[in-house]
Amino acid sequence: MEGADLRLRLYQIDLLVYDSILAAIDGCAGVFHLASPCIVDKVQDPQNRRLLDPAIKGTQNVLMAAKEKGVGRVVVTSSISAITPSPQWPADVVKAEDCWTDIDYCKQNELWYPLSKTLAEKVAWEFSKEKGLDVVVVNPGTVMGPVIPPTLNASMLILVRLLQGCTETYENFFMGSVHFKDVALAHIMVYENPSASGRYLCVEAISHYGDFVAKVAELYPEYKIPSLPKDTQPGLLRAKDGAKKLMDLGLEFIPMEQIIKDAVESLKARD
């Protein structure tokens, strides 16, 4: 990477070890807090170091360190999983940034990942209010695109399983897809724009997983893509401008078709 030898420093940190975070943040004007376990499969011990503790305590530690080091703004990567599942949301209203995941519903149904993201984001807003730290939040949907790291993230594993014929509908985990490039741009935009505030839903459109599956089947008929119901997310209203706040900042989202093409072609190149 051009300029990395002069401007890039890498630190190994543990979200549960405060001092390791302090060292990485020292001298920074801004912080992007992306790190949080993303596990949509069943978790046997959700409170352990795999999920809830790193998400919630990790967020607390990052914000405390940012405040201690005089950071100007922290951009927290939350998720649509802090917006949905929200079964009590009015059926005739499009879900937006003012919608929050139902914590009790998550506990009752053992939906530990949405619970972790929701509680972590609430911690961020409470800290911001109490300590006066400037916090802005991005809530990405299912993030896909060309694969860069050696291992696949949870979102890309959903696509891999679909290509293998998986019939899971991800009822409580889907609200729309987004290209990883747009997620990166969203973070930069809300960091650099002084007027940016609050939450920013980050999806190319609010859609159902059934819409995504149908598009994959259309683009890649050579795979045995299962036929799923069109409406896979009960109560979720579709909206092309679901991420209007980011659109108003100037973000032009890569459409679902291109997201799928970039992701699938990248997976094929790995084989």
UniProtKB/TrEMBL annotation:
GO terms for molecular function: oxidoreductase activity, acting on the CH-OH group of donors, NAD or NADP as acceptor. Residues 8-196 form the NAD-dependent epimerase/dehydratase domain. InterPro entries: Epimerase_deHydtase, NAD(P)-bd_dom_sf, NAD(P)_dehydrat-like. It comes from the Eukaryota. The keyword NADP applies. Keywords: NADP, Oxidoreductase. The keyword Aminoacyl-tRNA synthetase does not apply. Belongs to the NAD(P)-dependent epimerase/dehydratase family. Dihydroflavonol-4-reductase subfamily. This is NAD-dependent epimerase/dehydratase domain-containing protein. It comes from Hevea brasiliensis (Para rubber tree).
